Amino acid sequence: MMSRSRAGFSGFLAGLVAGIAMSFAMLLLAWVFQIATPLVILGDRLSVFISPKPFFWIMGRVGGYNHLKQLGVGSSMLGQILVGAIGGMVYGIIRRKRQQHFGYRWTFLIFVALPLVVSAILLWPVLGTHYGGMPIDAARLISLLGLAISFLLFERVLVLGFDFLTSRGHEETAASPEFSPHLGRRAFLLGMLGLLFAGGGAAIARKLFRIATFSYDGTQYKGSDVQAITPNNQFYCVTKNVVDPRVDGGLWHLEVTGLVRHPHTYRLLDFKSMEMIDQETTLMCISNGLDAGLMSNAVWRGIPMADLLEAASPLPGADRVRLHGVDNYTDTVPFQKAMTPTTLIAFKMNGAELPDRHGFPARAIVPGYFGEKHVKWLTRIEVTKADAKGFYETQGWGPNFIVPTRSRIDIPYNESWIKIADAAKSVLVKGVAFGGDRGISRVEFSSHDGESWDEAKVDYPGTKLTWALWSFNWEPDGVDDYTLVVRATDGEGKVQEFEEDRAFTSGITGFHKVIVHIFA
User: Fold this and answer.
1) Which domains does the chain have, with CATH numbers?
2) pTM for the full predicted model
3) Phi/psi of residue 103, nearest 5 degrees
4) Which residue from 189, 252, 385, 494 could staple onto 133, CB 3.0 to 4.6 Å apart?
């Protein structure tokens, strides 16, 4: 009978290789079939339980959102490999004691059925994720199938690997039954198999890394070259995903469901015959800083969301609309806001199909609300009661999601040094102002930290739903340090202000200030 130490070592090694094989399978399913796996969706599941303040603290400690996402995926992968190795060690010790009572039925129940049930319970809210655009209910089944395949591979590699290591060969010596040349050779061969799985997993991981969101997540649009209409490839971008969806238009559906009399499912071809409208609308992220560029403007083409909601006949009690993306992102808007003619389901952006990173084939456009409400890769419109919450709402963002009036100085840059000879005539100051869905009626500039104000020129007034571009030819009084400030007045006559009681989770308010040094 094999010793306990040999059984533990054999089980540990077999579990380690099985954990690597399982991770390889998950990466392969994600790459080839765009199936969501715990490597990614575990982060989505856990992040809603972390409130914004500690979430930002963690991001700061690890070096930003992209690093946090990479750390999360890496930790998930290493964690499940380690758990697999420990599970294998326990399995080996138990096998040593109860060999005749530990057949395939038990290993299947413990290493396949039980993890599948536990994963289904814990991950159910995020199992509807599918990066190719599969409808939510079908995506749940596909995700569970992917988990079952991965767990089954783990179980088979563990059992076969353990049997391979512990079966006695004629060359095994009685003098060293625990760690004989026989065990050493077999451990080497099993380790080589683990390296093959690890190498394959690393190759797939590199391919996924190349298409990951790290190269563009956090894209900002600001500076001297800001245009009235933001080019698609420069439009600001924020995403929770490690790899964004690349939706197959043939798979994609848009469901209208919930508190409606007539639920309906639309395919992409159904929208080709519908009359669409063009609407210029500016989007801004809720975490956009006073000096940041997480704000952009585009012309969106789509249909009013109200058209689909009216066709579905909402039932009494309809108070909110929850929007679902294929990446399992959700958010809610008031039902009346969803019924507003300017709330769109957009299919084009600046005359082109929506880029993948901006929500192909369809996204929501909800003027006047922060960017998180403009759900990308839209796949379900669910009419709900008042208590419905979305991804970031559950995390603790809000409660106010209406964009406050904001303005920004794009040039000159903060801490600029300008020679007085260059400033003899004037210094061009310019930037943007945004009033949500209220428009901008006036922009004012101050070179004395707000002690006095001059009216700036609005070069591009935009519409009620867009930003405005402004400029001012500033003539400095002489050599000195100046604090430049801008403020805007929205289309309803309300002047931009600092709201002291407004939490950062509802978007910060205040005034953008730029320090400029005029020297001789």
Assistant:
1) 4-210 (no CATH), 232-395 (3.90.420.10), 406-519 (2.60.40.650)
2) 0.92
3) -90, -170
4) 252
